[in-house]
Amino acid sequence: MSVPISPLQLLLATLLMLISVILSWRLRLGLERDIIMASLRMTVQLLLVGLILGWVFALEHPVPVIGIGLIMTVLAGHAAVSRSPRRYPGVYLDSFLAVFGSSFLLTGLTLSGILQIHPWFTAQYAVPILGMVLGNTLTGVSLSLDRFTSDVITHRGEIEGLLAMGASRAEAAHRAITAAVRTGMVPVLNSMAVMGLVSLPGMMTGQILAGAAPSTAVRYQIVIMFVLSASSALGSLAVTHLAFRSLFDHRDRLRTERLTDTVRRP
After folding, report:
1. Residue ranges per domain, the chain?
2. CB 89: neighbour CB atoms within 10 A?
3. Which residues contact 215 (CB under 8 A, 6 or more apart)?
4. 167/134 Cα distance (integer angstroms)
5. Which residue windows are transmembrane per the record (predicted)?
6. How confident is the model at residue 1, as a pLDDT?
7. SS3 state at 251
8. Are 56 and 232 spatial neighbours (Cβ–Cβ below 8 Å)?
9. Low-confidence ranges of the chain (pLDDT < 70)
10. What is the pTM of this model?
């Protein structure tokens, strides 16, 4: 069992935030308000999630588990697009479908096929694993989407030249597609490369703090990392394919006019 944290201990930990605020104030970074607001938002969000998960764990029913999963997926799909500098009609739906398809498929396979959790909707396993997969897939989808839309703008002349010489839309966009998928997978590959040597992952650390044997925590972490890798690849490939279908029409024409620049230029 992990050591319980009292409200006073939580308050003492909160005071550590002052280090960032003081540094920002002394160095005139102008981040004091952002640091305070981000800390308050994170604290409120986590406290609410703790209350909701406690209620879901007690119910032991698939409906609230699926409901929470869908809400998390909608928020992840929206977050994957929100910071993108370029968007096109239907990009939010594409992002949701990519995140939903890869995350639910791989979480389901992990719960039922690999870990063999019975019943599969046991919230203690389903919600945390889905949350980790969603967070990782969100990053891959966001990076892939940004890279693909940037490449079709940057290399527009090259792509249109290939199309003019008779190449199909898939052939003309092949370079942009592979670059986007590769970019989406970089974070999880970097994380896997240094895991155990430079960093100890959150799930493994949490299990050890909760009293699990290190060998058990390591095995869970290995399973999760392979799931995250597969989810990142599937999510990146899916959103890139969907963006490709939106920006290239069936007559093999590049439709960059469908892209809207969301960054305000001075």
Report:
1. 1-59, 60-256
2. 11
3. none
4. 36
5. 6-27, 39-57, 63-81, 93-117, 123-145, 192-210, 222-244
6. 61
7. coil
8. no
9. 1-2, 199, 263-266
10. 0.84
